Amino acid sequence: MKYKIRYETFEVMESPEEYIKSPEHVYDMVKKEFSPIQESMTIIGVNIKNGVIYKKQVGLGTYNILMCKPADLFRPLLIAGCGAFIIVHNHPSGDVTPSKEDIIFTKKVEKAAEYIGVELLDHIIFDSNDFYSFKKNSII
Predict the structure, then answer these.
(1) Looking at 16-20, 40-44, 78-82, 102-106, which range is the least confident one?
(2) Cα-Cα-Cα-Cα dihedral sign, residues 89, 10, 19, 29
(3) 23-133 belongs to which homologous superfamily?
(4) Reduced to 3 states, what is the DSSP secondary structure of residue 98?
(5) Phi, psi for 19 (deg, rounded to 5)
(6) Which value, in Å, is the radius of gyration of the alpha carbons in the chain?
């Protein structure tokens, strides 16, 4: 049996145009890129100085659910050579409080990142008016 592997093109920024300064900065950077009616998840990969070198949408869902596995995050981050990353996803409902599933997912990703040697800097949930930082709220 033969398998065909789908190859993706990874666009890695050679010199970062933007540097992550805070959760507020990440929120301002991404809030306009997401749909107000559909959940989606993006990863932001950074270099050692928190310069953004990679950004990719890794999950798309419905108005209230999003399916994404940790492997969906790590594969592109490792290929792009990122040393750390931030997860961002939106809650179209307007409530940025993390669900039980959001917390479980983040803990799994945090543990996997530790084993792989890539640092999870934050997971930010947002809507058009507000955001929630797992780091600021001491969940990670």
Answers:
(1) 16-20
(2) negative
(3) Cytidine Deaminase, domain 2 (3.40.140.10)
(4) coil
(5) -120, 135
(6) 15
